[in-house]
Design brief:
The structure is a homodimer. By secondary structure, the first copy, chain A, is an alpha+beta fold. Chain A folds into two domains: 54 residues, Orthogonal Bundle (Arc Repressor Mutant, subunit A); 80 residues, Alpha-Beta Plaits (2-Layer Sandwich), CATH 3.30.70. Helix content of chain A is 38%, strand content 27%. Chain A has six helices and five strands. A four-stranded antiparallel beta sheet of chain A has the order 3-4-2-5, with helices on one face. In chain A, helix 2 crosses helix 3. The longest helix of chain A has 13 residues. Chain A starts with 11 loop residues before the first helix and ends with a helix. The mean pLDDT of chain A is 92. At the A-B interface, helix 1, strand 1, helix 4, strand 3 and strand 4 of A face helix 1, strand 1, helix 4, strand 3 and strand 4 of B. Strand 5 of chain A pairs antiparallel with strand 3 of chain B. Chain B binds a DNA duplex through helix 3.
Chain lengths: 171, 171
DNA sequence: AATGAAATCGACCAGCA
DNA sequence: TGCTGGTCGATTTCATT
């Protein structure tokens, strides 16, 4: 019904591969094949398709932010003056500020939610100043994060059985 | 060797490697060596250290959430009844709910910020219900994300020159 | 989707600055 | 301690069925 998203038909095997590689891509084809009860070539074939179709966008290293001193996290609500049609531009400007990790454009009274990471108090203040200084930004409100209980970029792992079923049904 | 802020001394070459692999880990050692003007063995040597020291935590696949139908994003503020010492437990409970991607424990009037991803309206309502139903949760307030302008897990790429200098100085 | 052969790659080591 | 350069075994890749 809901075909706004062009979901390339994925079956259980595809999802198994995705689940495995979202967790760790350092296994070789043979290990994967053993665990998932598929042949090496089958894995190879499916993996190629998953990459080419854009389901797997990238293979990359996950770096510990603390190793780079980026241990402070702040979440900032950004309010924009509504008559200005600058929303998109402001979003891009926010995304380009140093330390900014995520920018969401939201419905409701707030306009943007920004998650950022800095090394110390001074950088935190500087970043907030830079946000306020952006043309069209009205007001901001920041929260300091004391603890990150979860910060995952694994999608499939967080999905319920029902959610997974919905993916398989569109086959 | 534990999770303090003990920054293993990193030099420019290490940061080059990290920057490259945060972007894409699918290059082979020789390509990397060419681009970074280091020998294959030097890359190999440093890469091992980066992994062993925990600077590089993982190599994994980045999956397009839309390919799994997880196209709706919500950001939820969760308020907890303060007399309960349940804070940690609630944080873990939140992290375990289906669709929940990030959980932050924050200072200030809000207690938790939760970023989650679902497939449709029904799942959105269900998730919010599940959050409210958690023991100790007082109140929630959710925002619907209309657009993700940036959603990166690349740390080094977002760092300013000044931030990078600070890492190099601790050598 | 499986096989097996050919090409390529990463792991490793002894020696060196 | 970090690097060189080369070898060897392992792994990916691909044509064929």
């Amino acid at each position: 019904m809901n075909h706004t998203d062009a979901t390339p038909d994925l079956d259980e095997n595809d999802l198994d591969i995705i689940r495995e590689l979202e967790r760790n891509d350092e296994k070789n084809l043979e290990e994967l094949a053993d665990e998932l009860d598929l042949s090496k070539s089958a894995i190879h074939y499916r993996l190629n398709q998953l990459k080419e179709s854009g389901v797997i966008r990238n293979i990359s290293a996950d770096v510990d932010p603390r190793a780079l001193g980026m241990s402070m996290v702040i979440i900032t609500e950004v309010y924009v003056s509504h008559e200005s049609g600058y929303a998109d531009e402001i979003g891009d400007d926010l995304a380009d500020l140093p330390g900014v990790q995520q920018v969401f454009y939201t419905m409701g009274d707030v306009d943007f939610m920004v998650v950022s990471r800095v090394q110390n108090h001074d950088q935190m203040n500087e970043l907030i100043d830079e946000i306020v200084a952006l043309e069209g930004v009205n007001e901001t409100s920041s929260r300091f994060v004391m603890r990150e209980l979860k910060n995952g970029n694994r999608i499939l792992e967080t999905m319920s059985e029902g959610m997974v079923d919905r993916v398989l049904e569109t086959e």
